[in-house]
Automatic annotation (TrEMBL):
Gene3D superfamilies assigned to the protein according to its UniProt record, in alphabetical order: Aspartate Aminotransferase, domain 1, Type I PLP-dependent aspartate aminotransferase-like (Major domain)
Organism: Flaviramulus basaltis
Family membership: Belongs to the class-III pyridoxal-phosphate-dependent aminotransferase family.
UniProtKB keywords: Aminotransferase, Pyridoxal phosphate, Transferase
Listed cofactors: pyridoxal 5'-phosphate
Superkingdom: Bacteria
Pfam families: Aminotran_3 (PF00202)
Entry protein name: Acetylornithine aminotransferase
Length: 374
């Protein structure tokens, strides 16, 4: 049976990984500066992660949410302690799309309203409401387009104000650093005014931290650079270091009711073990400090390369913008220099999303190759 052909594939077959490297079937070593869409947070096959997942799968890998699962409580407490998001409540699911889907659903339940405001070049997932709030008509099917979504320009505060004052908006969903869209960011004034407008118009303010969370931005969450308190925070990618897990942090003003959200696999024992291993490693190895140090080092070198016209993003969620489309450059980096990088909807942007364990020698290796490739 052939695979449904929806992914353009590079001719590389990774079979193993260790920290910031992956290896193909011929034992060729590749420097991974993309982490499988920012999923690999603590490095491939980190010993803490391998031990935690192995021990858990030996005992109990799964049972449904009909029973007590102390690992969920432990994970929730650890997220609260490391993120500083006090008094939020946690709902666990399996992916970023599910996290945003549940966030939007919860916002609609809470407000009794149904329209969503999202922003140009935003990406929130591929499921029903999440994909409708994504600014890419090519992946929005007619069944998704039935959702009520208004997509505005980032930083268009007058547009946001006008739409919120119509009274039918349940949520504004924001990426504080856009991922797929190309590392664009709103201004501090914009984010803080949107948050204030949401408060005065009975609208939930949703922080999409699926890609920017878990220290990748240089803080635990990217919204923490601003004076805002989201009603709902969605998380996923780096949360499980490759094991499927997602979730939403829910402000205590939103009251839970039995049955309003649900999931079969979300928050299973194995997922929680993976999630705890990630958080423990981030804490023990001071990885957020490393993010900031390595970001500063990376940017300092990038500024010396004349072909790089713009450096975008924060922390280890970075983009290098050129005055040409980077598709061929990415292929050259993979096939000639054995380095994985990422693309974006901005075709002139090279996206850098390495494991948070990256060191200076890895950054040096990348820039030496980039200069040759250019």
């Amino acid at each position: 049976m052939p695979l449904f052909d929806v992914y353009p594939l590079y001719n590389v077959t990774p079979v193993s990984g260790k920290d910031i490297y992956v290896y193909d079937e011929n034992s060729t070593e590749y420097l991974d500066l993309y982490g499988g869409h920012a999923v690999i947070s603590i490095g491939h096959a980190h010993p803490n992660y391998v031990e935690a997942v192995t021990n858990q799968v030996k005992t109990l890998g799964f049972y449904s949410n009909a029973i007590q699962n102390p690992l969920q409580v432990e994970l929730a407490d650890k997220i609260e302690a490391l993120s500083g998001c006090k008094d939020y409540e946690l709902f666990l699911c399996n992916s970023g799309a599910e996290a945003n889907e549940n966030a939007l659903k919860l916002a609609s339940f809470k407000t009794g309203k149904s329209r969503v405001i999202a922003f140009k070049n935003g990406f929130h997932g591929r499921t029903s409401a999440a994909v409708a709030a994504t600014d890419n008509p090519n992946i929005v099917a007619p069944i998704n387009a039935q959702q009520k979504v208004t997509i505005l320009e980032l930083n268009d505060i007058l547009g946001v104000k006008a739409e919120l004052e119509k009274g039918d908006v349940c949520a504004v969903i924001v990426e504080f650093i856009q991922g797929v869209g190309g590392l664009d960011q709103g201004t501090s004034d914009f984010f803080e005014q949107v948050y204030a407008l949401c408060k005065t118009n009975n609208t939930m303010f949703i922080a999409d931290e699926v890609q920017s969370g878990y220290g990748r931005s240089g803080k635990f969450f990217a919204f923490q650079y601003y004076n805002v308190t989201p009603d709902i925070i969605s998380i996923a990618k780096g949360m499980g270091n490759g094991f499927p897990i997602g979730g939403i942090l829910i402000h205590p003003d939103i009251e839970a009711k039995y049955g309003m959200l649900g999931t079969t696999f979300g928050g299973n024992h194995l997922a929680c073990a993976a999630g705890l291993a990630v958080l423990n490693t981030i804490e023990e190895e001071n990885l957020i400090d490393n993010v900031n140090a390595m970001s500063e080092y990376f940017i300092s070198i990038a500024k010396t390369i004349p072909e790089i016209k713009n450096i975008k993003g924060r922390g280890l969620m970075l983009g290098l913008e050129f005055d040409f489309e980077v598709g061929d450059l990415r292929k050259k980096l993979i096939y000639d220099y054995h380095i994985f990088t990422g693309g974006a909807s901005n075709k002139k942007l090279l996206r850098i999303l390495p494991p948070l364990t990256i060191k200076k020698e890895h950054i040096n290796q990348f820039f030496e190759a980039l200069k040759k490739a250019l």
